[in-house]
Amino acid sequence: MTTYILRRILLSIPVLFGILFATFTLGRLIPGDPCRAILGEKATDAVCNEFIHRHGLDKPILVQFGYYVNEIAHGDFGRSFRFSKPVTELLIERLPITVELSFAALIVSLVVGVPLGILSAVKHNTWVDVITMLWANTGVSMPVFWLGLMLAYIFALALKDTPFQLPPSGRLSPGLITVPFYEIWNLELTPGTTTFTVLNFFSRMNILNGLLSTDFKLVKDAAIHLILPALALATIPMALIARMARSAMLEVLGQDYIRTARAKGLTQRVVVLKHAFRNALLPLVTVIGLSLGSLLGGAVLTETVFNLSGVGRILYEAITARDYGIVQAFTVVIAVFFVVLNLLVDISYAYLDPRIRLN
Amino acid sequence: MSQDIQTTVKLNVEGLSLNSASLWNITRRRLFRRKSAIVGMVILAILVFIALTAQWLAPYDPVKSMLDVKDYAGRAQKRLPPCIHAFGCPEEQTQHILGLDGNIRDEFSRLLYGARLSLLIGLSTVSFAIVIGTVLGALSGYFGGWVDNTVMRVMDVLLAFPSLLLAIAIVTVLGPGLQNALLAIGIVSIPAYARVVRASVLSVREMEFVSATRALGGDTMQILFRRILPNALTPLIVQGTLGIATAILDAAALSFLGLGAQPPTPEWGAMLGAERNQVFTAPHLVFFPGIAIALTVLSFNLLGDGLRDALDPRLAHLS
């Protein structure tokens, strides 16, 4: 198992290096002059030359790449020209919002998708199956941004003044202030230390922060604001997961050992959940891994629709403003995140299926 | 037990008789047996019809404002809600089945022209990706070694990015616009096809009919394109049909963000993006383009799923 994990990690190093090279190249290929995009059209040549020299933009491209890799290896993602602060700081501010949203969406899609898929397989060719699959096919076909807008319309306007009314944008109701949980715990922390950074990162996830500081009003408010974006983002993965769970279960349920289990007199519940579901897990894990990509991509759209200032939103804003630093850093972080998640998926395969680790 | 043997024998006989029909006949027969695939084909047929006849079906010009239309009887009003005479809309008002948009254009006409654009987007990006992906995958699978390693590592890097994000990044470099958006989506979808083709090539490369062609003096090109690649056709068709669905969704997303089709092009994603802040005041301008995108994507998804089942030899006994 350890050898397998090690080999798998080694194999992803070239891919990580490729990601760095790709984002670096993309960042440098962006047309337009970074100096005038940041300092404005009226910047004089002298000012621009100084700017270019200060940011090392006059060095040969390979030297620039070398600098870049070296900086990233030291956890330094450079400065954002536009916000004029380190990109790492921006990441710590914005990433928790996207992580919270994607995590909520993943939970929703698993909690709804897996049971629906199993139900659909067990009730194969009945109306339950037909309706579930109809819904799943529609689910994968809907544009995320449209679904988000429609949910906002239904729950914020059509259901206004009913108990089902939900806020269409933002993360908290106006007037609600969050206090980081470590301040409530009276922890003495110095800004800039790793502990502070890590705790600061987690305290920016409102629900987690509310739970840790036992402020349930905050938890409720944050959760209410998260429902619509999470639902919109969850729909496609939910449908993919339901479809895959169904086909994997159908394949397993048709096998001989299931017939044997039934012949032994085991209850339907035990046969389905203990005997069949375990073997249907493998293809399911693949789909979950693939869904993560659509979650991260969909986050850009969902954050735009619901006015959430997460990574996706800032990435889009940075692109329109030609803020190289942010574009590169955020693309790298998201891609690395994606590679690591896929690595975990692969490792969980080996855990679930001994044939893989022995190969 | 004897029952079992009988069924097996019967199935085998049926399998034999099936083999005598051509692959396309079998596929067509199996495809028409699936209700969902038929639904997909019907929606698609309607869309193709609309796309081909948009200029006759559309009551108004898709890009011209009502203010510029000669003899326009109705009072032109921004974001006018749908007005259908048969449903009680006053006769003195001009009929606009889906209302008017923010630039006082007929939404219904724009939607019809949008079908043309969406189908073109899907077909062109996927054709581009299939051609490049097939060449890369075939070279990679056939020659192996460093060619294979280089190509597949590049594909791995492309796959390491969530596809929409990579497309956004590429459009940034190329500059916003429909053509660049299509190119970006095309590039992002290459790895899927390269992998499919490479896998098919690997599976037949060492087979006897390939060696036979080589022994008969066939050159590399002939072996690759006449003998090996036809085997990759069925998975490519399935992947391509499903790929069109994804391409249309991604293109709509890019246009929604303002990176794809630019105004006044009647592209569904762009139409939705332009009016997204009006969702509470003019929901029809958000609702209808979204439905159009969803229906188009759904039709390709249903057809792709149907094709996958119909072309899968392991499911042959079901037909």
General description of the model:
The complex is a heterodimer of chains A (359) and B (319). By secondary structure, chain A is mainly α. Chain A has helices at 2-29, 34-39, 45-54, 61-73, 87-122, 127-141, 144-158, 181-184, 194-203, 206-212, 216-253, 256-263, 268-305, 311-321, 324-352, 354-358; strands spanning 79-80, 85-86. Chain A has a two-stranded antiparallel sheet with strand order 1-2. In chain A, a hairpin with a 4-residue loop joins strand 1 and strand 2. The longest helix of chain A has 38 residues, at 216-253. In chain A, 38% of the residues are buried. The mean pLDDT of chain A is 84. With 319 residues, chain B is mainly α. Chain B is elongated and about 80 Å long. Chain B starts with a helix and ends in an 8-residue tail after the last helix. The A-B interface holds A 14-15, 18-19, 21-23, 26, 29-31, 133, 137-138, 140-147, 149-150, 152-153, 156-157, 292-294, 296-298, 300-301, 304-305, 315-316, 319, 327, 331, 334-335, 338-339 and B 36, 153-154, 156-157, 160-165, 168-170, 172-173, 175, 245, 249, 252-253, 256-257, 269, 272-273, 276, 279-280, 283, 286-287, 289-290, 293-295, 297-298, 301-302, 305.
Category from helices, strands and their pairing of chain B:
mainly alpha
- SSE topology string of chain A: HHHHEEHHHHHHHHHHHH
Give the amount of beta strand of chain B, in percent: under 5%
Poorly predicted runs of chain B are: 13-19
Give the topology string of chain B: H per helix, E per strand.
HHHHHHHHHHHH
Q: How many helices of chain A in DSSP terms?
A: 16
Q: Average pLDDT value of chain A?
A: 84
**How many β-strand stretches of chain A?**
2
